[in-house]
Amino acid sequence: MERSTKDEGFVGRALDMLEPNDARVIANQDYFNGHDSEEVCQIVKATLVTATKIYIIKYKLPPEAMKEAINVQTLGETREFIDKCDIKLRNG
Predict the structure, then answer these.
(1) Burial annotation 52-65 (CB, 10 A radius, 16+ → b, else e)
(2) How far apart are CA 68 and CA 65, in angstroms?
(3) Per-residue model confidence (pLDDT) at position 2
(4) How many Å apart are CA 49 and CA 17, to the nearest integer?
(5) Among positive and negative, which fits the CA dihedral 14, 29, 32, 71?
(6) What pLDDT is attached to residue 1?
(7) Which residues of the chain are under the pLDDT cut of 50?
(8) What is the 3-class SS of the chain, one letter each residue?
(9) How far apart are alpha carbons 92 and 75 in whole angstroms?
């Protein structure tokens, strides 16, 4: 079923409403804390995938970073992925 840009618009309008401090609520550090072997919750996964897409678009993380973000299973893997991407972003 063709929905034109209804779904894209829904997400886009939500992102447009964000204020600078909203990121702290969306990506609350408490979600990322825990044991390395702890399974990543859906909130963390959604946040990580969204942030990764933004970095791919704006800061040129490689497109394969999206597959890595989608495939994290544990908090330890999530933190390793973030650390790896952070180094890439800092070093250009």
Answers:
(1) beebbeeeebeeeb
(2) 5
(3) 81
(4) 19
(5) positive
(6) 73
(7) none
(8) CCCCCHHHHHHHHHHHHCCCCHHHHHCCHHHHCCCCCCECCHHHHHHHHHHHHHHHHHHCCCCHHHHHHHHCCEHHHHHHHHHHHHHHHHHC
(9) 25
The amino acid at residue 84 is: K
Amino acid at the residue 76: G
- Residue 12 is predicted with a pLDDT of 93
Q: Which two tokens stand for residue 40?
A: 């990543």
pTM value is 0.87
Amino acid at 57: I
Q: The tokens of 88 are what? A: 């890439």
Distance from C-alpha of 21 to C-alpha of 63, rounded to nearest angstrom: 27
Sign of CA pseudo-dihedral 57, 17, 21, 48: negative
